[in-house]
Specification:
Layout: H1 7-30, H2 35-68, H3 73-77, E1 92-96, H4 101-112, E2 116-121, H5 126-138, E3 144-147, H6 153-167, E4 172-175, H7 190-209, H8 212-218, E5 221-226, H9 230-233, H10 239-259, E6 264-271, H11 277-280, H12 284-292, H13 302-313, E7 324-327
Parallel strand pairs: 1-2, 1-4, 2-3, 4-5, 5-6, 6-7
Helix pairs in contact: 1-2, 4-13, 6-7, 7-10
Length: 334
């Protein structure tokens, strides 16, 4: 490998940086409705450019050491350095329901931000979890998966102990696990009411309760709860789901007050209709009717939810707590 770092190399690096700045400017104008998406994409591109430059300089440094020191001496002097394309934050994140449609993109965004991510799954999803993990590896994302029934407090307690023993700390918690069992209230079965409340709301208590003590002890944490536009406006045939998601907002605001002096922020993200594979599989006329009611005229991209969560999870978002980010394309404005 040629490790000679010439003036031409510096000029090429500067040219590439300038071109990316211009491209970002153009993309920001073109995609004015999605500033966060453009910003994140540009950030990762600049990170890749910086990574390539650092690697090139590291190779030159190693070559210089070999030329100045006898054979073998340079090996003792060179500090082994691993540079990756992901900025390393050193934070550990857990995402409940992480292998689901929205959960997947939350895991992606957190991992690309440099966090070590753990996704939970329920026992009957075991085979899917293995395949899901392989798919993420093919994307260059090493995400750990762990089985946990988030409706079971003791199972969550066991999971918390296992993860804190393995990773020492959990810095970011995203409560994303959720199900639907739709029916009008006059036809709703009691078991379907409790199934949704247990999974969508009780799980938030079960998981959060078992992780916050560690966060308080370390005086740092980010808790993000995935609510829904229907928790704000209600939805026909979803009294159970809407009640759970509205309860999540109240839980978030109360807990944010309790933990404000502990360096821990607690926020919600409330998506509207998101273009997951499940939604896209719905009959076209139903999807079109939904889109017709959205001022922005489209479904949300799952990555837009993931990037919003990653934003709230970032170290620099420490002054945002007790807030809700509504990502619904203008479907409901408060």
């Amino acid at each position: 490998m040629n490790t000679q770092f010439t003036q031409s190399d510096y000029l090429d690096m500067f040219s590439e940086f300038t071109n990316q700045c211009q491209k970002t400017h153009t993309e920001m104008i073109k995609n004015w409705y999605d500033p966060m998406g453009v910003t994140m994409n540009s950030f990762f591109k600049f990170a890749e450019m910086a990574n390539a430059s650092v690697n090139q300089i590291a190779h030159q440094h190693a070559a210089a050491l070999k030329s100045f020191f006898p054979q073998g001496a340079s090996e003792k002097c060179v500090v082994k350095t691993t540079v990756t394309s992901q900025p390393q934050t050193g934070h550990i994140a857990i995402v409940t329901g992480g292998i689901g449609g929205i959960g997947t993109d939350i895991c992606r965004s957190l991992a690309r931000q440099g966090n070590k991510v753990i996704a939970t799954y329920i026992s009957f999803e075991a085979e899917r979890a293995v395949e899901w993990q392989k798919e993420r590896l093919e994307e260059g994302l090493d995400i750990y998966v762990i089985e946990c029934d988030v409706t079971d407090f003791n199972a969550c307690k066991k999971m918390a102990k296992k993860l804190e023993k393995k990773y020492a700390s959990i810095d970011i918690l995203v409560n994303c696990a959720g199900i639907t069992r739709d029916a009008t209230l006059k036809k709703m079965k009691k078991e379907n009411w409790h199934a949704v409340l247990d999974t969508n709301l009780d799980s938030v208590f079960n998981v959060t309760r078992n992780f916050i003590n560690g966060m308080v002890k370390r005086q740092y944490g980010r808790i993000i709860n995935i609510s829904s536009v229907n928790g704000h406006k209600g939805q026909f045939g979803q009294t159970n789901y809407s009640a759970a998601k509205a309860g999540m907002v109240g839980f978030t605001k109360s807990l944010a007050r309790e933990l404000a002096d502990s360096g821990i922020t607690v926020n919600t993200v409330s998506p509207g209709y998101v273009g997951t594979s499940m939604v896209k599989a719905m009959p076209e006329n139903i999807v079109n009717n939904i889109i017709a009611k959205i001022p922005l005229g489209r479904l949300a991209r799952p990555s837009e939810i993931g990037d919003a969560v990653a934003f709230l999870a970032h170290t620099n978002s420490g002054y945002i707590t007790g807030s809700d980010i509504s990502i619904n394309g203008g479907l409901f404005m408060r």
